[in-house]
Design a protein that fits this description.
Length: about 140
Amino acid sequence: MNGVFIDSNVFLEFLKGKERAKTLLEDYLDLEGCINDIVFSEVLFVYIKAETGKKSYELKRQPELVKSVELNDILELLGRYRMLEVGEAVKSEAEGIIKEYGLLPNDALIAATCKHYDIKKIATFDPDFKRVDFLEVIMLE
């Protein structure tokens, strides 16, 4: 499979108005750009915290605040990219990636998703992915 995996931090920097992130997201629209449910969850979580100005423990105690956040724009943005499933094979692969490359679990699941779907490139602001020898990092600065 061709394509470029888009890491969570690209979306988050886009939401902050970073021009390089905007350009990159536009470059990989439609079939070339890919995400998984880890990215989906991380982006939504940070977006909800930013929109409410609350910390996660505060949001857990105030579900009405979570319900009040308008998600249409962020869901539309994420929906532009192909969603890759994190199944059992990806989860199994992630364990080895944690041990081999020292990635934290969510990053290991992202790298394992790339490996499973034969995606060779990842767009990210995270230098940790440079340690993964099967990924070409499109590093954003």
